[in-house]
Amino acid sequence: MDSLSVQLYAFAVTMIAGASIGFIFDLYRVIRSLLRPGAVVTVVMDLFFWVVAAPVIIIYLLMANWGELRLYVLIGIVLGSAFYYLLFSSMVIRLFISLLNLIGHIISFLCQLFFSIVVWPVKVLQDLFLTFNARRRGRSWIKFESGWRGLRWRGGLRWQSRFIPFWRRQ
Questions:
Q1: Calpha distance 52→21 (Å, rounded)
Q2: What predicted TM-score, i.e. pTM, was given to this entire model?
Q3: What is the reported pLDDT for 45?
Q4: 66 or 158: which carries more pLDDT confidence?
Q5: Phi-psi category of 147—alpha, beta or left, where left has phi over 0 and alpha has psi -120 to 50?
Q6: CA–CA gap between residue 14 and residue 11 (Å, rounded)
Q7: Looking at the DSSP assignment, which residues form a beta bridge with residue 143?
Q8: Radius of gyration, CA atoms only, the chain
Q9: Which among 58, 82, 96, 157 is most buried, taking Cβ atoms within 10 Å?
Q10: Confidence class of residue 123 from pLDDT cuts 50, 70 and 90?
Q11: Count of CA atoms in the C-beta half-sphere (13 A) of 30
């Protein structure tokens, strides 16, 4: 029989294991709420969660008491996950969502930077060439615009040229 200190150590480690599983489950919940998968994908994601969670539990059990599964170990896992959900779950979910929003803003900024450095000058040159070509052919009423709106890009430039209405022609 193990001493009380060994059992308390094992109980503490299993509580940490329960909190770790709660953390992984919160990450899973955030990803699932963002992706909104169908029934089949949800089953696959559930299986993937357990493929990740089972080795985590096994590693903690090996650290705690050489993998022996006793009643206090199960109670420790349940209490650890319950304390995690009561104390940290909402904060961790907000942190995950904020991190994903930050990553989205960084990706959006990089796309805007790419369009402002690479695509927009090419589009302006194309518009100048088409305008010059149209004026050379005597169709000066056609005006080509790049449609660029600065760094407030929300999903694409206007790639097609527009005809100017007759009341705006020069």
A1: 9
A2: 0.66
A3: 94
A4: 66
A5: left
A6: 5
A7: 162
A8: 30
A9: 96
A10: confident
A11: 18
Q: Looking at residue 88, what DSSP letter applies?
A: T
Beta strands in the chain (DSSP E): 142-143, 162-163
Helix, strand, coil shares of the chain, percent, nearest 5, are: 75, 0, 25
Q: Are 161 and 145 in contact (CB under 8 A)?
A: yes
Ordered DSSP codes for 55-68 = HHHHHHHHHHHTT-
Burial of 86 (0-12, 13-18, 19+ CB in 10 A): exposed
Map tokens 């705690």 to a residue: 64
Instruction: With beta carbons less than 8 A apart as the criterion, state whether 161 and 130 touch.
Output: yes
- Cβ contacts of 83-86, under 8 Å, gap ≥ 24: 83/15, 83/18, 83/19, 84/18, 84/19, 84/22, 84/23, 85/22
Domain boundaries, the chain: 4-87, 110-168
Angstrom distance (rounded) from CA 167 to CA 18: 71
- According to DSSP, the residues that pair with 142 across neighbouring strands are 163
- Check residue 99 and give its pLDDT: 92
